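Protocol step 4 of 5: obtain the predicted structure for the target chain.
Materials: sequence only (see below). No template structures provided, no constraints applied. The aim of this step is simply to have a reference model before the mutagenesis design in step 5. Sequence pasted as it appears in the construct record:
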Amino acid sequence: MKILDLYVARHVLGGFFIVLLVVAGLDMLFALVEEMKDVEGAYTFSEALKYVALTGPRRLYEFIPLSSLIGCLLGLGILASSSELTVMRAAGISTFGIIVAVMKPVLVIIVMALSLGEFVVPHSEQSAQSHRQVMQTGNSIISDASRVWHRDEMTFLQINAVIPDGTVRGVTRYEFNDDMTLARASYAKTGHYDGQMWQLKNIRETRFPKSSDVSSPELAGLSTDLLKKETWSSGLTPELLKVVMVKPANLSMSGLASYSSYLEEQGLASSQYRVAFWTKLLLPAAVFALVLVAVSFIFGPLRSVTLGQRLITGIIVGLTFKLTQDILGPTSAVFGFSPFIAVMTPIVICTALGFWLLNRAK
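Step 4 output (structure tokens):
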């Protein structure tokens, strides 16, 4: 049985890695072509290539569920086409035994996915975005390439880039009074966190008079100053800022949990971060559900079709699964139901479909 497990695992993992590398490789190629339109100045072709390479782990991670489905269809399809699955069953190996043999290498895929998503992708993606923003924007105040806005109590801020060491570049802040009138606008070229507060350098600030103090259209009392340094007290830490600079889907579960709590403390919506958290946490269940569907297809409706038909079916099912999750996530925020339900619904549907098809195959 151990030899059989290794034989099945070799086909499943072989199909998985072939599909993953091909799909992720094509995605990186298209991304590089897309980056070519932004190549100018300091952002050269080599810098664009470096950016795309740094996003590689994220692209691999995103395609793991789809690749597990198609790779399983590919690996088991080869065994089915050569009648090896039929021989296994004739030798006394039950369908359940074959499913167990398939699920063992899936554990390797899940461990790889969790390791990438929790330890590699957050750092590589943050480095990629910071590198791209620094090369494209330098210290410009506002950049079309990196409009990262955030609210911290009564202050709205925009940050050009967060360097991996925690340094920030291009910090624009708009501070409002309690009546939501603009009190101060400032721009700092750089800043670093000393463990308790932010130390900003090279600041240009503009202070606005209160509306009751304005006696003419020229805004009497408006003042502009240049400061060498300023201490800024904020609940934002370098760790939280790194979260702000990266899309929720590319963050670690710990980062998503801490930032969601921070947003809720600020009275801000955290639904997209909660959806991303549950998506990552339930990724093992999603992979198992998709692989179960692949196995049920091999023993059920796709047992005698061509390899091309299996791959097309796998692509359709995988994309439908991802599209459903992508739609239900924002829908949960609009209609107010749990992000857990939004993420779990496609998984439950796939699992039920897999068991139903396997039961029919008997």
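Step 4 remarks: Residues 95-137 form the longest helix (43 residues). The longest strand covers residues 182-193.
Proceed to step 5.
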